[in-house]
C-alpha cells in the first residue's frame, strides 16, 4: 500500500525529464492511461494520413498521445490522439510537450473512457484556446465537434458529412 508521501508530485520544471510511459498529469499527479486497441490506432493513422495529404505543407501533424500543457501550476498535462498546428500559429516544427494551443485536436474514445474523463479533457483543451476538438466514438458511431468560443456541441453520425477543419469536410464511414 502506498501512502500519500510516496506519490511524486510533478512540476513544470519536470517537463523535460518526465519518465517514459502512457499517462497524463493532473494537478501534479501522474494518471496512468490504458493502452489503446488496434481500431483506435488505425483511426489515428487514418487521420494522420488525411491531414498530411490536405495540410502537410501548411502545418504540423502528430499522433500518439501528444503531450499538451494545460497549466503550469499545478502541472496539468494532457495526452491527445491527433494534433494539428498551422504554420501560421508556429512556423517552426514543435518539439517536446506542446505549450501552444493546437488548431485541431482529435480524441478517439475508447470503451475504457468514462464520460466525465472526456468532458474534463475537452474543458482543458478549450481552456487553453484550442480551436477545434473532435471526439470520435466508434462504439456509438458518433462524432462530437467542439469549437472555440461556441457554447453548443455539434453531433454527427459516421454517415454524415462534417467539417473536420476549415477546408476539409469528411464522412467517417468513407474513411474508415
Structure characteristics:
alpha+beta; 3 helices; 6-stranded mixed β-sheet
Summarize the structure.
By secondary structure, the chain is of the alpha+beta class. It has one domain: tt1808, chain A.
How many individual helices? 3
User: How would you describe the oligomerization state of the chains in this entry?
Assistant: single chain
State the major sheet.
6 strands, mixed
CATH-defined fold name: tt1808, chain A
Order of helices and strands: EEHEEEHEEEEEH
By DSSP, the count of extended strands is: 10
Portion of residues in beta strands equals 35-45%
What is the assigned CATH homologous superfamily?
Answer: tt1808, chain A
The shape, in one word, is globular
Global structural class = alpha+beta
Q: Give the number of domains.
A: 1
Average pLDDT taken over every residue? 92
Unreliable residue stretches: none
CATH class: Alpha Beta
Instruction: Report the helical percentage.
Output: 10-25%
Intertermini distance:
44 Å
The CATH architecture classification is Alpha-Beta Complex
Q: Report Rg.
A: 16 Å
Please characterize this protein's 3D structure:
With 176 residues, the protein is α+β, with helices and mostly antiparallel strands. It has a single domain, classed as Alpha-Beta Complex (tt1808, chain A), CATH 3.90.1570.10. It contains three helices and ten strands; from the N terminus they run ββαβββαβββββα. The strands form three sheets. A six-stranded mixed sheet has the order 3-4-5-6-7-8. It has a two-stranded antiparallel sheet with strand order 1-2. It is globular and about 50 Å long. The model has no long low-confidence stretch (mean pLDDT 92).
Amino acid at each position: 500500500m502506498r501512502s500519500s508521501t510516496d506519490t511524486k508530485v510533478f512540476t513544470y520544471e519536470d517537463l523535460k525529464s518526465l519518465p517514459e510511459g502512457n499517462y497524463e498529469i493532473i494537478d501534479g499527479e501522474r494518471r496512468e492511461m490504458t493502452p489503446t486497441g488496434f481500431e483506435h490506432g488505425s483511426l489515428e493513422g487514418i487521420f494522420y494520413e488525411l491531414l498530411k495529404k490536405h495540410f502537410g505543407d501548411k502545418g504540423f501533424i502528430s499522433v500518439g498521445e501528444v503531450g499538451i500543457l494545460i497549466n503550469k501550476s499545478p502541472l496539468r498535462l494532457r495526452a491527445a490522439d491527433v494534433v494539428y498546428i498551422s504554420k501560421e500559429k508556429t512556423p517552426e516544427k514543435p518539439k517536446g510537450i506542446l505549450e501552444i494551443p493546437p488548431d485541431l485536436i482529435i480524441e478517439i474514445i475508447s470503451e475504457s473512457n468514462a464520460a466525465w474523463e472526456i468532458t474534463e479533457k475537452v474543458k482543458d483543451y478549450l481552456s487553453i484556446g484550442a480551436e477545434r476538438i473532435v471526439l470520435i466514438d466508434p462504439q456509438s458511431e458518433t462524432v462530437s465537434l467542439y469549437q472555440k468560443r461556441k457554447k453548443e456541441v455539434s453531433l454527427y453520425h459516421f454517415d454524415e458529412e462534417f467539417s473536420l477543419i476549415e477546408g476539409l469536410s469528411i464522412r467517417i464511414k468513407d474513411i474508415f
